[in-house]
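Note to self: keep these together.
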Amino acid sequence: MMGNRKETILHKIKNNLTGPYKNYLKYVFARGFLFRQMFNKKNSSCSDYLSIAIIIKNEAPYIREWIEYHLLVGVDRFYVYDIESTDNVLDILQPYIDMGVVIYQYFPGKDRQVPAYCDAILKYKYHTRWLAFVDADEFIVPVQKYTLPEVLRDYEHYPGIGINYAMYDSNGHIKKPNGLVIKNYTNRSTDPEYLSNRFIKSIVNPREVIVVNAHWCLYRFFKWGVDENGENTKGAITKKQSIKKLRINHYYTKSKEELLFKINKGAIGTLGRKMPDKILIDIEEERYNFLITREDRIMDKYIDEVEEKIH
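Structure:
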């Protein structure tokens, strides 16, 4: 009787949610995600140490730089979920697919970010020790080391790590400049209390995840993910930004031209629709040109090698 009651409550929750959350729960129910994750082997011998799951839509101008940079810092494989791209991104990805570095999946529809992450966890949880969830405008940076595995080995007893954003603005560019994103955009927000700087993205042990989100996860047996200092992360936002060991360089707006393209393209993640005017105003005023900034050249040490790879 109790089991039936629980089932009824869960289905009521599922049937009364709307938008992306309803679609997410439908997907989770259909795939039995939580149940399947609860009985994972604790650890296994993985062929890869670090992989990234990413959703993309029309990222052809940027994806090679993004892949080559992350290969340079120690990522082994990329699980790429294509949300109805109409540019030539598949042509660009094909050499990486042929090498086995990119596992490509066409993944059409709305509200597909979290379902894509669930799919990656279920399919590849025994293939990779760590799985990161980031976007094509986000670069995972080992601040004191050259590669990410050098840093991640200190966190292997945790189920996941929440890494704060380091937000970059337009650098005064109106038109899209030639060259690398990591070379053209060096103007970073230095306000640790600024809300966007306090958001996290996660690198997880995929065998420990029971609930996945665009920013943070819940883990088996009431475990918590941690920030770079080993403090528990309980949500998508930390109390303050901490970027001494790891950070996510978030090139959100880039130039004015690229920002307008992003707005017209619409969100492809959790919302799956164009952003409302209020958020667009916030982007224009707060993200396009930050009030408190400094020039940050942390990516300079990678520029020559990335340029050599893509030219």
